[in-house]
UniProtKB/TrEMBL annotation:
Protein name: DUF429 domain-containing protein
Superkingdom of this protein's organism: Bacteria
Pfam assignment, any one: DUF429
Matching InterPro entries: DUF429
């Protein structure tokens, strides 16, 4: 089984892709790229059994309705709500709120933060996949699933904060050490040095691990009430078992 992880940024720079080959109870990192353009991302996703993309796959439904209403005239503020309370559903998707309840981590707001730029790029990538005959189910069924590396790391008992950017290479090094200790079946091969130098590459590897969890059915899925929003907003698949279960 080949799983792919994509740490998607708004541009090719800072976009990383990792390819994990799973066989005989082991996972081997067979390729890793840290400057990935659209063509490379599409090529990687279409080659994988499952691809985990670290980027929102959609915007909050209520935000879309809000913008549409504002363009047509005036928005209506719900009675009894003000300030942050009524803006919460505009800023956070259903899945973002579920992640916060389960992990204590709040994903970046796709409608109120810079992650929106990456999501615009993601929307174009999803359109290209559909054009090639591989439409994406934003709820996680099919070949693509939305993932959140920080939440995965926290749920697996690994360091999940403080390893980003060049100033924190010591923490990134510590994270890679812990990851390899907890997953002795994971072989980073010649790309280990890259993972220790680039948090984007490491996040792509974690995204590929999360894709494996999704392929095995070891992640959260939307319930009946959440299925509707997940189909349009996207759904972050959180691992439901320890990291060791992924080796199979």
């Amino acid at each position: 089984m080949l799983t792919v992880g994509v740490d998607l940024a708004a541009e090719a720079v800072r976009t990383a892709v990792a390819w994990l080959d799973w066989r005989d109870g082991r996972a081997r990192l067979v390729r890793a790229e840290t400057v990935a353009d659209d063509a490379l991302v599409v090529e990687a996703v279409t080659a994988a059994v499952k691809a985990g993309i670290d980027c929102p796959l959609g915007w909050p439904d209520r935000f879309v309705d809000f913008v549409t209403a504002h363009r047509a005239g005036h928005v209506r503020v719900p009675e009894g709500l003000a300030g942050r309370d009524w803006r919460r559903d505009l800023a956070l998707r259903v899945t973002d709120q579920v992640v916060r309840e389960r992990t204590g981590l709040t994903p970046l707001s796709v409608s109120a933060d810079r992650i929106g730029h990456a999501t615009m790029r993601c929307a174009a990538l999803l359109a290209e996949l559909a054009r090639r005959g591989s439409p994406v189910d934003r709820g996680g069924d099919g070949a693509v699933v939305e993932v959140y590396p920080a939440a995965c790391l926290k749920l697996w008992g690994l360091p999940f904060r403080g390893y980003k950017r060049a100033a924190n290479l010591a923490e990134l090094d510590r994270l890679v050490d812990r990851l390899l200790a907890e997953a002795p079946w994971l072989d980073l091969g010649p790309y280990e040095r890259l993972c220790r130098a680039s948090d984007d590459a490491t996040d792509a590897v974690v995204s590929a691990l999360a894709a494996r969890a999704s392929a095995l059915g070891l992640v959260t899925v939307p319930d009946a009430r959440q299925a509707g929003p997940a189909a349009t907003e996207g759904w972050i698949a959180l691992p439901t078992t320890p990291l060791g279960r992924l080796a199979g």
